[in-house]
Every structure is written in C-alpha cells, then in structure tokens.
C-alpha cells in the first residue's frame, strides 16, 4: 500500500563557523543624537534628559554630543562653495541636470520685479537668439549671458533693448504666466530706440561697447514690423537700412577703437568674410541673365555693376549652403545686409524691380529654420507676397522660386529647391545645426518657466490644449 509522507517545516538554528548558534540582532532605529556612553557601548540610547536611562542605572555622568550647526540659508543668488572635490562634482552635476532655472531674487536699484523676470528670461532663453553656434571665431554664449548683462546694468539703453527682446520673445511663444503684455513690450521697445538714438548722438567712448551690442540686438527687436497688427508692407526695406547702419557703426568704432575689437566683444560682431570670386560662380543663371539683359538706355543700366555686386553677396549664401546647414550659413544669412553697398539700398528703397527681385531671393534663405533665431521667422512669408503683388505678372518667372519656397517647410527640401538638385543631402562630415520646430521651442520655454505656473494656470493650459487637439 502506497503511503503519503507529510513534511513538517521546523525552525533549525543557523550556526556560525564555530558551531555556535547565531541569533539575528533585533532591528531598531539608530539613535543619531545619543549620549557618549551609549555610543561607546554601541547600545541604543533613549536620549532622556538630563540623563538617559542607561547612564542612570549605571550611575554614570551622561554627556550628550553637541548637535552640528547647520549652515544658514543664504538669501543671495550666489551658489555655495563646495569644500571637497566630491562636493564640487555633485554640485556641478545638480546644476547641469536641473530642468528649471530659478528666477533671481536679487533686485538692483532702479529695476522692478518685471525687469528682473525679463532679464532672467533673457539669460535663460532669449540670449541664444544671437548665438549661431560654437564657431571657432564666434563662441559667444558666455559673452551674451555675462558680459552683455554687465554692460546693460551700466547703460540703460542696452538694458531696455534686452528687456524689450525678452518681452517680444515671451509673447512670440505665447507664454502667459509671466504677465508680459503687448503694451509693456511696446514701452520697452520705444524706450530702447529713443535712448539708443541719444547715445549715438552723444558718441561717448565709454558707451561704445554697449552701442555695439545694442546695434546688434535692435535688428531682432525691430522685426515686430513683420508680424501682427504692427506689420506693414515693405518693412524689409527699412530693416535692410537698419542693418546697413549697424555695419557702419561697427566699422566706425573699429577704426577708432581697434583695441575694443581685440576683446571678447569683438567675436560678438564677427562677420565672415565673403569670397566674391567664388561666390560669383554660384549665382543662379536666371538672376545673372536678369542683369546681363539690361540694355543701354534702360533706367537700370547705370546700376548694372551695383546689381552684380549684390548678386555676388547672394552667391555667398548659395556657396555656403553646399556645405549644409552649418552655423556659418546662418551667420551669413543674418549678417547679409551689413555687406550691402549704399548704392544698392537706394534703388531698393526706390522700389526698382530688379532690386526687389534680389531681395526676394535673399528672403528665401530666411525660411531656413535656424537653431533659435525666432525673430527672423515669418519675414519671408510676409514680404515675398508683397513683392510679387507689387511687381505683377511681368516678373513672375523670376519670382517662381521665392513663391515656391513659401510652401516648403523642411530645410532639406528648401535647400534642394535653391540648389536645383532634387537628390541633394547635407554632407555628413560637417556639423549641422539642428532645426527644432516652433512647437518644440515653445515647449522648452514653457518648461523653463514651469516653476512660475500655478496649478490653476497649468490646468487651464491643459484644458485649452485638449480642446484644440480633439475638438
């Protein structure tokens, strides 16, 4: 007969190497502030005052260790200095991995809380609008975030320009919780232009560094004329004139204060030189034919060489585009008008057709999605149709490419259109500039100011987002 064995589990004492039974220690919460005697005996202290129970039973003097003093919480914006290499590494890691940069609490005289919020946003996001990458000749991130701000506190016209730029950037991204209105943006912008004009007239050498910086920023600040209710047709002609004026200021200060350009600020206004001969070989044939076909007796005949020089400058953009979407390409696009001769600005402002055609082809390059150059967006979409409408059907053939660019959003597709090569790809060995969409940049900025959002505002944003997505 088959039997079924029943197995019982019995507790078998665990033995150590000496064969003696081992009993696990009873778990208990360690005392961090016990008396010296208990700590020496490695027993738990009940921390009774003035004497613990163990010392009372042993009739010993109960002595407690002094509690370590905590470092006072600093109210300044400076960071604590680590005392050891390991602490320094940990601190650096925390700083580098922090998702949200806290807004500054320090408020210098003459500036209210709104000014400080805008200045904080500039050093967090807006400064990168004028950094086209880590070029060997133009590594300016530190200059934009540190040196520029130092000059701004000493020169009100530069500070107003920075605050106006930040206000425009915030409104461009649609960030609401910082409380920056369009009217406030307008106030900063008007004050910046007025004070800059006065500083130029005064020509005080001590303000030259701030004048250089402001002249660069004003080209971004002035792009409000291409968007919204303030937009007006052919504002690009005034914008071109402003860029040319900046080039003149740069050369004037350079000739009188070469030492200034040997400092770090020199890299801020760096412009890549143009090889006119090499650029001339990249001019599109239809544009060359437009100039070559000018007959004697035509009102534009005396301007033939001027137009050709403009096409050489335009050719530098085509030449650099062959290398892909490099930081140098975007720098050439931004500084393009600073190379324009006064002799070309005049016919453009006179609305001569050939000058407008050249400008329309330049505007195609502003369609490239740069890394953070939000202020140059929408210029082509606004001005190319204005140029086409003004010139009419007679110039339609020369404007086919600018019109086609308005329906092209992808950088590679736009480059293929410009180069006339449907199979073109950016060279893989050259560092390319990433092109985040406006939505991605908006999300980045919203995450940056997330610490300022209230639960109600966050909930309202999500409700609106859901309504837009699913209605």
TrEMBL record:
It comes from Thermothelomyces thermophilus (strain ATCC 42464 / BCRC 31852 / DSM 1799) (Sporotrichum thermophile). Residues 22-33 have a biased composition (Basic residues). InterPro entries: Sterol_Uptake_Regulator, Zn2-C6_fun-type_DNA-bd_sf, Zn2Cys6_DnaBD. The keyword Protein biosynthesis does not apply. CDD domains: GAL4 (cd00067). One of its GO terms (molecular function) is zinc ion binding. SMART domains: GAL4. Residues 1-12, 73-83 have a biased composition (Low complexity). Residues 34-64 form the Zn(2)-C6 fungal-type domain. Residues 1-33, 68-88 are annotated as: Disordered. Pfam families: Zn_clus. It comes from the Eukaryota. Keywords: Nucleus. The keyword Repressor does not apply. This is Zn(2)-C6 fungal-type domain-containing protein. PROSITE patterns: ZN2_CY6_FUNGAL_1, ZN2_CY6_FUNGAL_2.
């Amino acid at each position: 007969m088959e039997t079924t064995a029943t197995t019982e589990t019995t507790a078998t004492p665990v033995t150590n190497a000496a064969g003696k039974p081992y009993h696990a220690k009873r778990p208990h919460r360690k005392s961090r502030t016990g008396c010296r005697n208990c700590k020496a005996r490695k027993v738990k202290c009940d921390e009774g005052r003035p004497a613990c129970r163990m010392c009372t039973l042993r009739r010993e003097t109960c002595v407690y260790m002094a509690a370590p003093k905590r470092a006072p919480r600093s109210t300044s914006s400076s960071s604590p200095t680590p005392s050891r290499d390991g602490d320094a590494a940990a601190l650096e890691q925390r700083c580098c991995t922090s998702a949200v940069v806290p807004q500054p609490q320090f408020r210098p005289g003459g500036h209210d809380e709104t000014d400080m919020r805008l200045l904080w946003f500039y050093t967090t996001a807006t400064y990168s609008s004028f950094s086209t990458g880590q070029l060997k000749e133009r590594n300016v991130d530190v200059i934009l975030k540190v040196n520029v701000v130092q000059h701004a506190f000493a020169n009100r016209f530069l500070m107003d320009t920075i605050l106006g730029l930040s206000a425009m950037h915030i409104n461009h991204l649609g960030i609401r919780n910082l409380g920056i209105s369009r009217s406030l943006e307008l106030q900063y912008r008007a004050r910046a232009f007025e004070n800059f004009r006065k500083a130029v007239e005064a020509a005080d050498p001590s303000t030259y560094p701030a004048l250089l910086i402001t002249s660069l920023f004003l080209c971004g600040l002035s792009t409000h004329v291409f968007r919204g209710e303030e937009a007006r047709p052919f504002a690009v002609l005034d914008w071109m004139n402003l860029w040319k004026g900046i080039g003149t200021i740069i050369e004037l200060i350079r000739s009188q204060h070469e030492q200034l350009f040997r400092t770090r600020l020199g890299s801020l206004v760096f412009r890549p030189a143009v090889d006119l001969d090499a650029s001339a070989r990249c001019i599109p044939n239809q544009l060359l034919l437009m100039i070559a076909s000018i007959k004697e007796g035509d009102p534009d005949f005396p301007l033939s060489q001027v137009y050709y020089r403009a096409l050489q400058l335009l050719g530098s953009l085509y030449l650099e585009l062959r290398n892909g979407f490099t930081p140098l390409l975007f720098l050439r696009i931004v500084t393009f008008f600073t190379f324009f001769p006064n002799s070309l600005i005049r016919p453009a402002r006179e609305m001569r057709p050939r000058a407008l055609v050249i400008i329309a082809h330049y505007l195609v390059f502003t369609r490239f999605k740069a890394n953070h150059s939000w202020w140059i967006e929408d210029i082509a979409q606004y001005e190319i149709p204005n140029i086409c409408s003004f010139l009419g059907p007679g110039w339609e053939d020369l404007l086919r490419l600018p019109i086609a660019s308005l329906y092209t959003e992808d950088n590679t597709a736009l480059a293929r259109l410009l180069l006339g090569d449907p199979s073109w790809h950016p060279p893989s060995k050259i560092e390319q500039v990433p092109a985040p969409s406006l939505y991605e940049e908006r999300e980045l900025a919203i995450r940056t100011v997330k610490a300022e959002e209230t639960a109600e505002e966050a909930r309202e944003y999500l409700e609106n987002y859901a309504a837009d997505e699913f209605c």
